[in-house]
Specification:
With 160 residues, the chain is mainly alpha-helical. It is built from seven helices and two strands; from the N terminus they run ββααααααα. The chain has a single domain, classed as Transferase(Phosphotransferase), domain 1.
């Protein structure tokens, strides 16, 4: 399935806060995944902060969800949106540009690998953006399964 509206409000944790028990909800905008990649989607929908540039261009595939995961990761680690605007058109313009920074003080304690993960997912050209399988194989994801920085995890919960 291609969710098409991934955002923090659609990610639930079990009451024991076990990250292995996350659930994605609200599949009202979801559509079946087309493995051939021949069927380009043309319906523009989603939540402004999390929408991928190719969705705004009305030609997208499953990688629009990877963009949203990049935005969510950025927001969870920093507490801020990578593409901010006061109006939807301002947000959309910044999303299309795809320019964001890791300059806020909150980024000093975030690893280079985490920033690389976000940068890869927030690649404007969807053809160059990693697939879900490639994202799961990223060094930061593999390492985070082994160790968790307790201080950073506390900040993540505050940002959520």
């Amino acid at each position: 399935m291609i969710h098409r509206d991934l955002k923090p409000e659609n990610i639930l944790l079990e009451p024991d806060m076990d990250f292995n028990k996350m659930k994605i909800i609200d599949f009202g905008t979801a559509i079946p995944y087309d493995q051939t990649g021949k069927r380009g989607q043309t319906e523009v929908l989603g939540t402004p902060f999390y929408i991928a540039p190719e969705v705004l261009a009305a030609k997208y595939n499953e990688k629009c969800d990877l963009w949203s995961i990049g935005v969510i990761t950025y927001m969870v680690l920093s507490g801020k949106a990578p593409f901010y605007g006061k109006t939807d058109p301002e947000i959309y313009a910044r999303v299309k540009e795809g320019k964001f920074e890791f300059s806020a003080p909150s980024w000093k304690q975030v690893s280079v690998d985490a920033k690389d993960f976000i940068q890869q997912l927030l690649t404007v050209d969807a053809k160059k953006r990693p697939s879900a399988q490639e994202a799961l194989s990223h060094k930061w994801i593999r390492m985070s399964k082994e160790t968790v920085d307790i201080d950073l995890a506390g900040n993540v919960f505050s940002n959520m």
